[in-house]
Design brief:
Layout lengths: L4 E4 L3 H10 L3 E4 L5 H6 L7 E4 L8 E4 L2 E5 L4 H6 L1 H6 L1 H9 L3 H6 L2 H6 L5 H4 L53 H7 L3 E6 L2 E6 L22 E8 L7 E6 L10 E10 L2 E10 L6 E2 L1 H7 L6 H11 L12 H11 L1
Parallel strand pairs: 1-3, 2-3
Antiparallel strand pairs: 4-5, 5-8, 6-7, 6-8, 9-10, 10-11, 11-12
Helix pairs in contact: 5-9, 10-11, 11-12
The structure holds iron/sulfur cluster.
Iron/sulfur cluster binds next to helix 8.
Length: about 325
């Protein structure tokens, strides 16, 4: 392992300043993904800026809903009374992720920043455009491995069926983020130039020609909090995660579904999928289709077929073309 600096900061301004001083700086919170990446030399940092002392670990009720600090632990959020009562979809998704020990360490901001679990990304002797960007060239001797995509022609059982590119077909690994996408959270971000707010849908991105970029954060920006607006989905929302074993496994496919109902009529619908794309996969066309319909299995089957428009398998992951609509119907 290469030596690196470690600094602990106590204000967001000092965090941003410390981060800006070194090109290879990373913010360290729970470390449940970052430390693995450093150990395996997928990331070779110059500096880790420990932000655990920043005052960003509170959950507050606000006039529009709920504000959740970026350093709130996943387990704290999952068990919070207001979350369980008004945003049970989020609680279900959080508890579907990782293991109890990891949820006790992992933070909300870190969960949003976690990297794909594509096995080629973690194995530095294998080609990977995300770990070793194309502009670096296909030099097999560069420290973090050659460019290319091992998964496109390789073992791609866990990979994307929506939104992939010829450069990368990795999937986003979080469960929490799938629920936050369905609930239309907003993200508050701080940089040296000030604070900005973006919709959750605009936080993660598709790979395109730059798969090394997982999200739209600018260099040195820090996630401060997320906000959830009050809604009428609590009675009719669910998270279904299909995986190889019942705990401590990433989703093959997951579905976060929320319906606002009046009798049997759907007033509003939200649907986001996990395990199928480089970002939480929202399905606005399916949500529009469901609005005003009477809830029934037949309608949900039709919605699930509509959801599959544009889906594409890469061989080993072809089973997701069948599993995904079934997961939507079940949810
Ligand atoms: Fe790398 Fe993406 Fe290809 Fe996986 S799918 S090997 S992360 S470029």
């Amino acid at each position: 392992m290469n030596p690196f600096q470690y600094v602990r900061v106590s204000s967001s301004q000092s965090a941003l300043t410390a981060h800006a001083k070194e090109k290879g700086s990373y913010f360290l919170a729970g470390g449940t993904n970052l430390i693995d990446l450093v150990k395996r030399e997928v990331i070779v940092p110059e500096k880790l800026v420990d932000i655990n002392k920043l005052p960003m670990a509170t959950i507050e009720e606000i006039s529009t809903g709920l504000r959740i600090g970026a350093l709130v632990k996943n387990s704290t959020l999952a068990e919070h009374e207001v979350v369980k009562k008004h945003f049970p979809l989020l609680s279900l998704a959080l508890n579907a992720g990782a293991s109890a020990q990891l949820r006790n360490m992992a933070t909300v901001g870190g969960n949003m920043m976690q990297r794909t679990r594509c096995s080629y990304f973690y194995e530095t002797s294998m080609p990977c455009n995300k770990r070793s960007p194309l502009e670096a060239g296909p030099d097999k001797n560069q420290p973090n491995g050659p460019s290319g995509c091992g998964a496109l022609e390789g073992v791609n059982r866990m990979h994307a069926i929506f939104g992939g590119s010829s450069k990368c077909i990795a999937v986003h690994p979080s469960d929490m983020c799938i629920a936050l996408a369905a609930l239309e959270a907003t993200v508050q971000i701080q940089g040296l130039k000030g604070v900005r707010t973006i919709s959750f849908a605009d936080f993660h991105r598709l790979p395109g020609d730059t798969p090394q970029k997982d999200n739209t954060l600018q260099p040195g920006e820090l996630i401060v909090s997320i906000e959830l607006s009050s809604n009428d989905f609590a009675q009719h929302s669910h998270y279904v995660k299909v995986r190889d074993r019942s705990s401590y496994a990433f989703a093959l496919v997951s579905a976060a579904v929320a319906l606002e109902m009046k009798g049997k009529t759907i007033q509003q619908a939200r649907l986001a999928l996990g395990g199928v794309a480089h970002k939480p996969w929202r399905l606005p066309q399916v949500e529009s289709f469901l609005r005003g319909k009477t809830a029934s299995e037949a309608v949900f089957k039709e919605a699930a077929q509509l959801a599959m428009q544009g889906a594409k398998g890469y061989g080993h992951n072809d089973f997701k073309l069948t599993l995904t609509p079934q997961t939507i119907i079940q949810a």
